[in-house]
Amino acid sequence: MIEEPVATTEEAPVTPVSGRRRRIDLWVLLGYLTLAVLVTIQLWIDPNGRVLAGNDDDHGVFLAVLAHAERVVFDGADLFWNDRLNAPVGVNMMANTSIFALSLPLAPITHFFGAGVSVAVLLTAGLAGTAFAWYWVLSRHLVGSRLAAWIGGAWCGFAPTMVSHANGHVNFVNQYVVPFIVWQVLRLREPGRTVRGGVILGLLIVLQCFINEETLLFTALALGVFVLAYTVLRPREVAEVWRRFTAGLAVAAATSFALLAYPLWYQFFGPGNYHGQPFSPSDYVTDLASLVFFARQSLAGYGALTREMSVSATEDNTFFGPAGLVMIIVATVMLWRSVAARSAAIAGLVLLLMSMGPELRVFGHDTGIPLPFGLISHVPVIDLVSVTRFAMVPATVAGVLLALAADRIRQYPPRRRRWFWIGMVLALVPLIPKPIPVVAGDPMPPFLTEGIWRRYVPEGRTLVTVPLPEVTTGRTGMRWVTLSNFDYATPRGYFMGPADPPHDDTGSWRAPVRFTSDLLWRVREYGWRPTLTEADREKITADLVYWRTAVVVLIPNGRNVAVQRATLVDALGEPQFVGGVEIWDMRKLPVPPAE
């Protein structure tokens, strides 16, 4: 179903040209890697001491999954269950973005150098690796020009959406398996590839599932629309290959199902599972105006303007710029006679429309114009996706189309070639990525770094930091426990789990609210100094018992810390100053029986 195929590497003879090709490939890889380092350079300066400013919450999540993998490898912890976060309940790691295919191989780096270093490695390798993977597939199978393949790889690896997600989403940055999945699916039409191709595809699906399931879903939807469009446009050609194509898909499905059956059962039906998201599909959608403006991390980007059209610093999923959008349209027109390119463009357009959600939004304002996504917004699995991320597909399709057009332009007259390359420069230069911003994280106190905490926290008990580890308000406590590789357990945390089991299994970013967590949250947020009654103190004690608390640690820096301290003194008495922090020794509290 792909027209005008070029020779694969297996078909190419081993000649001096092959050696030159390998040298070019090496320089391309080094170039991508250099650009990736420049994008992440501010984090590399102090990876364990700095936090991604664009999304420090999700930075903490990936520190957590890397620290959990370190415990799995070095301590034999349960792969799918984390009992050190959200104690005493725990967290279903399959129901969270646990990137097992990445976190487990990096466990030695996490163990010896810290989870922060592993995050920096994965962000850098993800950007460069995704770019090079697309370059490899394009140069071996789709284009004859190395320059065209380089442009396509650079766009797919460093497009605004990729750099945006590098502000915290390690899972979305590592997309180097995707181009090989796409190519293996398309090769299933070839004779003799039903079993071998199906098994290879199935294994790639498993690998991608353990990197990021959302990306796998987007890829499957895009390929589905592509195949459907191609079938409509070339029914006779499809009729000749559909049996072996579908047979190959069946082999891939059987292979991946055999390996993923239990993990997926655990994710959707195991302890700590949830259904749906804690937000409406209309909350996070692609703004139509974002197609012609620049992302905040692009060279021409202006953050204050971008924020009007984007839901967060990690979700600038379009932002092609005016010249970029024009060149995407030009490339599509140039390639329109190619049914494969036309089908790819249709797939990108469909996913772009899906990313706009149930109602059209323009420059931050809902227009009231209904869109087709409203008809499928509650379909299972679809309802687990942040809708704007569907736009990552058209961003990648745009890179492929630009590469194909850059290859095709060689056949055009000199004047048209000149205008084409002027347009490419005007499109690409403003999108050159800027280094992702970081901030300094609260340093870990000697109480933790010197292991003093071990004297206070016996096995089966927890260390409770205040503010409690929560999304948006307890980042430091979450970061401290993960940089300690979960040597101690802590209550609550930022993770996905059921909102209020067993009454409500809707997905939530936090543990069910308790009296003490709500009280301390309001104290921290508003500087409100509560007047505690004896009944309040009994509730606080009950929560500390429930959390199996051995010691309470006040994080010394942060918002309204003086009022937080006064509240803790009122509830628990005067603290001790140990290892650079104030602590309340709670070992005298009883330990409830294990559930």
Structure overview:
50% of the residues are buried. The chain has two domains: 16-431, no CATH class; 446-585, no CATH class. Helix 4 packs antiparallel against helix 5 (115-142). A four-stranded mixed sheet has the order 7-10-12-11, with helices on one face. Strands 1-6 form a two-stranded antiparallel ribbon. Strands 2-3 form a two-stranded antiparallel ribbon. A hairpin with an 8-residue loop joins strand 2 (81-82) and strand 3. It is built from 22 helices and twelve strands. It is 52% helix and 8% strand. By secondary structure, it is an alpha+beta fold. The chain has helices at 16-44, 56-75, 100-103, 107-113, 115-142, 146-158, 160-165, 170-173, 178-187, 194-209, 213-233, 235-269, 303-306, 322-334, 339-355, 392-408, 414-428, 446-449, 475-483, 515-526, 534-546, 561-572, and strands at residues 50-52, 81-82, 91-92, 359-362, 365-370, 438-440, 462-466, 497-500, 504-508, 549-554, 576-578, 581-585.
Number of helical stretches of at least 4 residues: 22
Class derived from helix and strand content? alpha+beta
* Stretches with pLDDT under 50, minimum 5 residues: 1-16
Order of strands across the main sheet: 7-10-12-11
Helix content: 40-55%
Estimated share of beta-strand residues: 5-15%
**Mean pLDDT figure:** 94
- Largest sheet properties: 4 strands, mixed
The global form is elongated
CA-to-CA gap between the ends? 56 Å
Number of discrete domains: 2
- Based on CA atoms alone, the radius of gyration comes out at 26 Å
In total, the number of strands is 12
Protein name: Glycosyl transferase
Organism: Actinoplanes aureus
Keywords: Membrane, Transmembrane, Transmembrane helix
Transmembrane segments: 26-45, 112-137, 194-211, 217-233, 245-265, 319-336, 343-364, 384-406, 418-436
